[in-house]
What does this fold into?
Amino acid sequence: MKNKAGILWMVATTVLFVIVTAVVRYLGSEMHPIQAAFLRYAFGVVLIIPFCLRASLFRIPFSRLRLHALRGVAHGIAIMLWFFAMMRLPIAEVTALSFMTPVFIIIGASVFLKEHFYRHRAIAVALGIAGGLIILQPGFRVIDLGAIAQLVAAPLFAVSMLIAKNLTRNESNGHILLMLSVFCTLTLTLPAIAIWRQPTLEELSWLFLCAFFATAGHYCMTMAFRSAEIAALQPITFLQLVWATLMGLFLFGEQPNFWVWLGGGMIVISATYNARKERTVRSLSD
It folds into this structure.
């Protein structure tokens, strides 16, 4: 039952993160990705602080503070690379490339979090990645710098998610979100100052909206991690490609071709297959 709740939280996460993707895509390449990432997390701090006023930041054991800092650095660098990729590539392509993250997560969850590596999880992840590769059609196009940036970001996002899963054992969702925003902002401050330009009011408004949906998405993701094993949730993230494809089609006229629909179908199958198997595993363990 817990895994079912976690899956529902992760589905909500995929929807919210695709909305963030659409906002960043709309902003285009006028603003430097480092500055855009910095403003997104600075606004995130502003949004979260009112809900964390009772939390004492000075009672965190040093070992966990180091985890927060490590997560913030990894996530901060990854988000810069992601903003760069989003400003150069179609939404569906960036989202498909992001599916390398679950590979690192499932390996990391098995090695560092001691989660059992069920065969159905490996099958579901393989199906999802195969669907993403069908959409990308590697070998048939020149590799863009944005694609390279997203591939480098994938293991960094995996580090962030694995640490988040570890932190849910001892800390509240609000606290975890606040620390992520604080350390990401600190990580991005100096690089942002180096390339800073005065943003327009419209850009600030869109980035505030981006921060709102991203913060909500991270809250849902943290709830998912609290409710289920992280490896069980990763194939669900493949649904994000379906939402991204639809968003690109209806908002930006990015017409999906046959391969997008074929790959998207495989991704839906992988998520559905994993959810059914997780229910079976949970019922047998209970």
